[in-house]
Amino acid sequence: MSINRRHFVQATAAGAAAISWPVLAQSRSIKLGFVSPQTGPLAPFGEADRWVIAGITEAFKGGLDVGSGRRLNVQVVVKDSQSNPNRAGEVANDLILKDRVDLMLVSSTPETTNPVSDACELNEVPCISTVAPWQPWFFGRKGDPAKGFNWTYHFFWGLEDVIAVFTNLWNSVPTNKKVGGLFPNDGDGNAWGDPKLGFPPVLSKMGYTLTDPGRYQNLTQTFASHIAAFKRDNTEIITGVVIPPDMKTFLTQARQQALRPKVISVGKALLFPGAVEALGELGDGLSTEVWWTPSHPYKSSINGLSARQVADRYEADTKKQWTQPIGFSHALFEVAVDVLKRTQDPSKRESLRAALAATNVNTLVGPVKFGGQGPFKNVSKTPLVGGQWVKGRSTPYELVVVNNETAKDIPVGGQLKLMS
C-alpha cells in the first residue's frame, strides 16, 4: 500500500491507544476479511478503501484488547471483487476456506455484498456489510422477514429513504411531475424499478407519472429507446441507479437528441467527484443521494475524529477530493472493533455472532444498532439526505447538501437549482 498515511495513522493510533483496556497477555491472531470492488466499473466505490485500511492496520499494530481479557493481533486480508459478483463469491470462499478469516467485512453494491454475504451465511462466518440499499441485500438474498439471517448483518439506508430524498428534492422546484426511469438489469436496478417494492408504487401515490422503458444491460452502448420514450412522454425529471460509464453515455446521447430535463437525480453514478468531473459540463447541476459528507455531525468511535477531520486527512494524504464511501469503509471497521471488544471468546464464531447481533455503536456515519434501528434484526438504517453537484472553488465540482428533510441534524449548504 504505497499511501501517505502519516496524518491518518497518527490520529488513528492515538485514538486506538485512548480506548484500549489494560494490556494483558498477547493471544492468537484474529483475521478480518475485507471485500470491495477496487477495479472494474464499480471501482469508484472502493477508491478510498486502501487508505482507510492502511490507517486501521497501523492502529492494530499493538493488538486489540477484547472482552475476554486478552489482547489479539488483528490482520486484515483484502480482496478485490473486480466489480464481478462471481468473483466476489470466489474471493469470499477463499477468505473463508483458505485464509480462515474470523469476521468478514464487505462493501459496495449488491453485486459485491450479496455473494459475499451468501458465502458467509452458508459457511457460518459472521459478516458485516454496507453500501447497498437494504432491500436488494435482504430480499435479493431471499431473506424471510420472520426469520432474518443467522450470520450476516447490514447497515445502510433503504429504497424508502432514497425515494423520500428524491421526491423531497423534486417537490422543492416546479416540474410537471413526469419522471423517466433508468433501471439496469442488476440487483439495484431491479429493486429500484420493482413494481411492488421500488419507485413505481410510491411515485404513483405521490402524484408522479413514471415512464419505465424497461431494463437495460450495464455498459450498454445506446439509450436511444429510453430517450425516445422520455421525450414522447415529456418527462422533466430523470431518475434511476446507474453505473458511472452508463451515466456519461446517457447524458451525452440525451444532449445529442435534445432531451432537456429540469432535474436529474440519479443514484450510484453521481456519488463520486471523479465520475462527475469526467462528465465535464454535463455534470453541472446533477443531484443525488448523500450518505456521508465532511459536514455530517458524527465522529469515529475508533479515533474520535470528526467527519471533517477524516475528509481533510484523506485529501492531504492522497491529494484527491473526499468521496462518500470513506465514511462507510471506516464505519465497517468501527463496527468490527466494537464487536471484537465485546466478544467473550473470539476463537468461537458463535461468540462473535452474538456480539455482532448486539451491536449498538455510534460511528462516523451515525448510529449502528442491530435489532432496533431497522426493519429486521439484521438491518440497521443510516441517515440519508439530498445533494447537488455545483461548480467548485478549489475543485471542478462540489457536492452540496440541498435538502435535509429526512435527517435534520445534517446541515444544508444550499437549495436545489434546476438544470441549466
From TrEMBL:
Keyword Signal: yes
Record InterPro entries: BCAA_transport, Leu-bd, Peripla_BP_I, TAT_signal
Assigned keywords, A-Z: Signal
Domain Leucine-binding protein intervals: 29-372
Alphabetized PROSITE patterns for the sequence: TAT
Pfam families the record matches: Peripla_BP_6 (PF13458)
Spans through the membrane: none
Family: Belongs to the leucine-binding protein family.
Name of the protein described by the UniProt record: ABC transporter substrate-binding protein
Species, as recorded: Caldimonas caldifontis
